[in-house]
Design brief:
The chain is an alpha/beta fold. It has 20 helices and 18 strands. β15, α17 and β16 form a beta-alpha-beta unit. α9 crosses α12 and α10 runs parallel beside α12.
Length: 538
């Protein structure tokens, strides 16, 4: 069925929705058809939009999140009513936590449905409010003709200012209703520029600094060139948060790498006289040892006027797009003291931070080294909330591009890495993408191996098996409790992979990992590489 409106074929709400998605540049959606969303699927057929079929709606949400992180464009999820959209709610909450634009679309109960319910199929007491609680923007269409505008409003909400997920609910009876001549529309985004007074204050502080430091977060993902330019102009070392990893290539002489949780970062922050924090909440989920001390002068750049004042009140708050704001700051830095090129200072701190990273990631160093040997400068790692990622890969594998480390930082959900890797590979097929998972977290979304196989993705999936929920095991022990309910009898992951259409290998050590990943990057379908690493070092 074509999505084109003709006099012989009235445009339905479902086809109007698909046309509006196409109008906003959507080329891929992740979803599962169900009884109540079939009019949307009728519109998708022949629309030119690629449909990716995950095995669970939570997987659809994480895959759309991975797609959005790698491409910089909103991901789109389509589910049916009730349990389907609620399955995706955790993914919506994760996208909200990490400021990722993902549009979740689901049918709702009919317009005239009784207010107190009547036992309708998939009926939820208040599906709309359940989703509104975990996204940045939520709305419910009230007519088929309104659908194109509702889509435009959702895209405006997701992409103007701080990116957040959105939820669009369309009563199921509107999906087959006549949408009339309603055409797709766009809502222009208003530019956000810092106040001139704040800009002057920031330039003055930076110009007079002797030991500046940049802290860069995921909000600077589209400002890699500008971050490099201002770091060079200031001769300032740059450390990134988890989601900012790769914004400054980690081979750059001013790069200190990613991970602000290390003990040395406290001394690094204390040593700086002026800190420029770009696109970061300075959040406790990144700063494990506590908020940064206010002894240093802090300048913050953020698109969100609320976030720019959260966790620490800055001396200068620049509310605006990171790239545009940094360009203006660089232009203003014309009269500064000579600090050399900053390489010696950066090298000093890089060596100390690397020692922290090696110590904290000791159990995973060999694995990280073996994995690094297989990766090129385009590599993307999609990780779970697993020890191998936050103790291992985050600070012990160097990545060279922004949007290259996909990790569920704020919400810290399990099961994210595998579907996020699927979405990333679909969104950026020319880049190397590797999923890096723990044996506990992977089981949350293990069914997505079948989706990856069906999509024919050349995707290495590395499972670091430490025999259970290692972090929780350690936390129990640290409390003086008896560790229990944390040990997992792992399945034969290689055999499971083959049963679901993938290749599968088991390694009793990291020996052979480089070769296995290198081969998997060129195979016709995903390859699960199960590595037994044993219990982590305490």
């Amino acid at each position: 069925m074509s999505t084109d409106h003709t006099s012989d074929t009235p445009r339905s709400g479902g086809t109007a929705l698909v046309a509006a998605l196409r109008h906003h540049g959507v080329d891929t959606v992740f979803g599962i058809p169900g009884t109540h969303n079939l009019p949307i699927y009728a519109g998708l057929h022949g629309s030119g939009i690629t449909h990716v079929l995950p095995r669970h709606e939570q997987g659809a949400g994480y895959a759309a999140d991975g797609y959005a992180r790698v491409t910089g464009r909103p991901g789109v999820v389509i589910t049916t009513t009730g349990p389907a959209i609620l399955n995706a709610a955790a993914a919506a909450a994760q996208a909200y936590s990490d400021s990722i634009p993902v549009l979740f679309i689901a049918p709702g109960l009919p317009v005239g449905h009784p207010g107190l319910g009547n036992g309708y199929l998939h009926e939820v007491r208040d599906q709309f409010q359940a989703m509104a609680a975990v996204v940045g923007h939520a709305q419910r269409a009230t007519s088929a003709a309104e659908i194109p505008l509702a889509v435009a409003q959702c895209f405006a909400a997701m992409t103007a200012g701080r990116p957040r997920p959105a939820y669009l609910e369309i009563p199921l009876d509107l999906l087959d209703a006549d949408a009339g001549d309603s055409a797709p529309v766009s809502i222009p985004a208003l530019p956000v520029r810092p106040a001139a007074e704040s800009m002057r204050a920031a330039v003055e502080l930076l110009s007079g600094s002797a030991r500046p430091l940049l802290i860069v977060g995921g909000g600077a993902s589209a400002a890699s060139e500008e971050v490099t330019a201002i770091a060079t102009r200031l001769a300032a070392p740059v450390i990134t948060t988890t989601n900012g990893k790769g914004v400054l290539p980690e081979s750059h002489p001013l790069a200190l790498g990613a991970g602000v949780q290390h003990p040395t970062v406290s001394a690094l922050v204390a040593d700086a006289d002026v800190i420029l924090a770009v696109g970061t909440e300075l959040a406790p989920s990144d700063w494990w040892w506590g908020p940064i001390a206010a002894d240093s002068t802090v300048i913050r750049v953020d698109i969100d006027p609320t976030a720019v004042m959260t966790n620490i009140v800055p001396a200068a708050a620049l509310v605006g797009d990171a790239a545009e704001t940094l360009r203006h700051v660089v232009d203003g830095l014309t009269d500064m003291p000579d600090r050399g090129d900053g390489r010696d200072r950066a090298a000093h701190w890089r060596e100390l931070l690397a020692a922290d990273a090696r110590r904290e990631g000791a159990a995973y160093l060999e694995l990280c080294q073996a994995l690094s040997a297989a990766l090129d400068d385009t590599a993307v790692i999609a990780g779970d909330s697993a020890m191998v990622c936050y103790y291992g890969a985050l600070s012990n594998i160097a990545l060279q591009q922004p949007r290259s480390f996909l990790y569920p930082t704020g919400l810290g959900t399990l099961g994210y890495g595998l579907p996020a890797a699927i979405g990333a590979k679909i969104g950026a097929p020319q880049r190397q993408v590797v999923a890096l998972l723990g044996d506990g977290g992977v089981m949350f979304t293990i069914a997505e191996l079948a989706a990856a196989a069906q999509a024919g993705l050349s995707l290495p999936i590395v499972i670091a098996d430490n025999g259970g929920y290692g972090e929780i095991r350690d936390e129990m022990i640290d409390r003086g409790d008896t560790a229990h309910a944390v040990d997992i009898d792992s399945p034969d992951f290689a055999a499971l992979a083959r049963a679901l259409g993938c290749h599968g290998h088991t390694l009793d050590s990291v020996s052979g990992l480089t070769a296995a990943v290198t081969e998997a990057l060129h195979r016709d379908r995903p390859t699960v590489i199960h590595v037994r690493v044993g219990a982590p070092v305490a």
